[in-house]
Amino acid sequence: MASDIEMAKAAGEAVKEAGESVGMPQLDFGTYPNQIFWLVVTLVILFFLMKRIAIPRIAAILSERQGAIASDLEQAEEMRRKAVEAEQAYNQALADARAEANRIIAEAKAEIQKDVDAATARAEAEIAAKAAESEKRIAEIRAGAMEAVEQVARDAAVEIVELIMPSLADAKTIEKAVAARVKG
Amino acid sequence: MASDVAEGGFNIQPMEQFVIKPLFGGHELNWYTPTNMTLWMGIAILAATLLLIVGTRRRAIVPTRTQSIAEVFYSFVYRMVEDINGTAGLKYFPYILTLFTFVLAANSLGLVPYSFTTTSQAAITVTLALTVFLSVTIIGIIKNGPRFLKVFWIDSAPLALRPVLAVIEIISYFVRPVSHSIRLMGNMMAGHAVIKVFAGFAGALGVFAVFPVLAIMGVLALEVIVAFIQAYVFAILTVIYMNDALHPGGH
To answer: Which residues in chain B are contacts of A19 at CB distance < 8 A?
Structure first.
């Protein structure tokens, strides 16, 4: 076994010497154990770096990003729904405000109407009162005029009777008679 | 041959870049001696760490540029494994990722001037290919037992042809590690040797060196593509071979 290795080494040296001129250092078998040893060392180190650090980390990053995208989409959907809700609430508020405004307008109109009605009623009552007073005054004036006429008629009748038949000149009777005639 | 060329005014040694030398001088090369290749494998680990670990340290939801590249890199390999092997193959994803990262880093770093191309070494690619071959075979036998032999027995072919196909399949199965390793090594070695040859021309041509320099630029651009494609080919072939172990007969 040992002699084999020695032989291989010797052969390697020989090939190496020749290699300078022949030009295939790859066939220098003397370097093979060295190369394979360092290759194994390199691959083991690289494998553990990949397996322990790089792969878990990158896999985590990728799945995290996948999750983030999914949750972002979900959030976007949620926000869209909220926007729709807000729009509905806004429309609702607008409609409410409009209804409220209409109600206030109607109320104000009704109040004004009531005031107008009250004022009209008062004015009518006043007019009626004034009319009644005027009527009363007219009636009074008319009554006064009647009395005056009666007075004049009575006085005239008494004087006429005194002139024509002084014996009959009884003021009371004449007055009664005149009153009866005037009324009739 | 080199000396012939040297006499003609050129000093081109395109293969000299592939010589393995002890890193800290001396001529003794024991199995543990750090070499120029050790250095560049270390740099490959460093590059992979910078991209995949330092680049992702922020764990940002909105990634930085480096983190994006790391994520694309990860997803690229992940999807490759998932598409070919299905979810059963994801168990082996860390191995495939390690393999792809190593080969890609080694290929790409080899394009840096004065660097050493790890994947141009037969010892490296053969070891990698044999490891893949043995893992696939062992996993296939452990997982499927005798059913693993279905890999060689094509059910969809006419019965009379099946034995013939079985022989062909068996040969092709055992040739796999050879083609798997030589393809990578050959591609890496050839491109670098060509660049070195052109660089040698440039050194000897004086003012007219502009032509070989332009040629080097072209070849280098091509080599960047080759570096990626060969890493991809190496990884995807590994995944395809792995498919035999996971789903034998599922051609």
So the answer is: 15, 19
